[in-house]
Amino acid sequence: MSEIRLDFVTKRAVIFTNIRENKPTDLWDKNIMNVFEKFDDIEYSPNCPFCVGNEHMTPENQYDSEENWKVKIIPNMYPIIQTEMEIKSINKFCYVSTGIHDVIVETPKHNETYFTMDLNQFNIIYEKIHKRYKELINNDDISYVSLFKNYKMLGGASLQHSHSQILSLDAIPIKLNYEINSSYEYYKDKHSCPYCDMLNFEMKAEKRIIYENEYFIALEPYASAYKYETWILPKNHISSFENEEKISYLSEMLYKVFNLLYNTIGNFPFNMYLNSLLKNKTECKDSYHYSFRIIPKIAGSAGFEMSSGIRVNSIYPEDAAYNILKKNNLINI
Length: 333
Description:
about 325 residues; HIT family, subunit A; three-stranded mixed β-sheet; globular
């Protein structure tokens, strides 16, 4: 029997059916999934624009003046959106919008990843990201700032060297806007933040939490759309990432979660992104809760998902959490 679960806030449907976990396949397997798993194990590549010594291959590091850098932020040479702030209307269905697209080069070492970095490197990365995020979100010409990381080819990455991206523009993303509006409708009905309620529910259930520290919690969401999908949320109600003050605790949480996932499912491709309250939604500050979301790309989407908008997941989140805790010796068998 299959089970359909609804997202706590948006009511997005996910079908869970663990029978399909063992379906036969000769196309989607680990060898194909990790077609570029075998990276050269080198700290420097003469062809990599992000390696130390190859700074001439990228735009000037305009945000930092350090010569012996640990993390640097540079303009993206191939931006999704251009850097000049200008809006030009073409018709009611189309307008030209420009913004700012940066790359965060997360390490000087070519072969270092989120699975091999130490905690200190995570601290440096997220201190710089937080600083840059605040600069961008406070720009009057910017409505939305997207922070995201693509890892491996199946995660959409084009370069091996560890990096993330921060893209700011004047447009409002429909998906995030819908989630924020849904949380506000919940708040008007329940007089509480749905994410705070979700955290209280999960802490009592003790089935889907994989790690927590003093200020943050990591869990496999109840209606997770992807295998081993993981959310990281502040325990206290904070609607906007720019208002976060406990960056060292966030860094420790990210460092720990990526280690836990690596020990469970290996060197997997993923996307990670930040959801934070939009600037024009100040009335929703009590109903929305910012979060980091990690989406492993270890299963593909098929025609049913595309035609229906309903995801199919063959691993229940409580089973995923159990597997993570078991693999990391965090529970007694």
